[in-house]
Sequence to fold (304 residues):
Amino acid sequence: MMTLGGNWASLLLPINRDDSIDFGRLSDAIDALIAAGTDGIYSNGTACEFYTQSEAEFDAIQQLLAEKCCAIGRPFIIGACHTDARQSVDRIRRAVQLQPVAMQVILPDWWPVGVEEARAFLMMASEMAAGIPLVIYNPPHAKYVLSPAELKDATAGTAVTAAKLALGSGNFYHEARAHLKGLAVFVPGHHLATGVKEGVAAGAFSNVACLAPRGAQVWTELMASNLGKALEIESRLQAFIANQIMPLGRAGYSNAALDKLLAAIGGWADVGTRLRAPYRSIDAAVVTTLRAEAQRLIPEIMSP
Fold:
């Protein structure tokens, strides 16, 4: 069984004007991620707009990713995320045959679940996964955000081996060290160096890889040889995110819109900034100015 860690790049869906998925451009984007040499590629997180996909689209996306990654031995994770527990478990059932190194799930998300209900769902998912490890994705906008102590209880005895988490309270790293030693913890990409310094982060399902997958990989590898330099780059990276990207989030654009904007700034594939309706897309006219600022502030990421 593979130990999960490192820099994982997300699929992003190229969306046509008629709201359909452009599978030709998606294929090219997967090729670009493979060429970037990231530690792995994952599908159907927030950036991949899993919440907008039909089941037929879900199957086609996972099949395409699996075929390309298996052909060259690149690890991949399939997001079986769905707000409905039964739909999520059924996505796991259909994806098991593709043999990803892990599958990512979210908690059922209409009525908030408690710890006992979260564990019941994770046991259902674990049984269907048939030996494939699970990653739990518990973002800050979930109906119920588990504390590290609750996450330990909810995942006990399940197939969950990793967790993708926001940083939460100021005590996050202390609480993670106390309660999550049995899980590989993935932090937001632009906090990865600090997470490594704190002895908590195994890796990131990374927004930095949305911006520049190769640069994110080089930066991640730098953490093993020169953590001080990686932390200095992180401080500039966080300044770019805080000053140039987060104001758009505060203006009401979704996280998926921000991730697609990052990809457009990086220019590593023709993904575009369009989201599926009804979610608002960021005007691509802002890309040129933001790209120049990124190249000025974080050249190590943009041009590694």
User: Anything to note?
Assistant: The beta strands are 6-10, 40-42, 76-79, 102-105, 134-138, 160-165, 184-186, 201-205. The CA atoms of residues 140 and 168 lie 8 Å apart. The chain has a mean pLDDT of 96. The domain at 6-214 is CATH 3.20.20.70 (TIM Barrel).
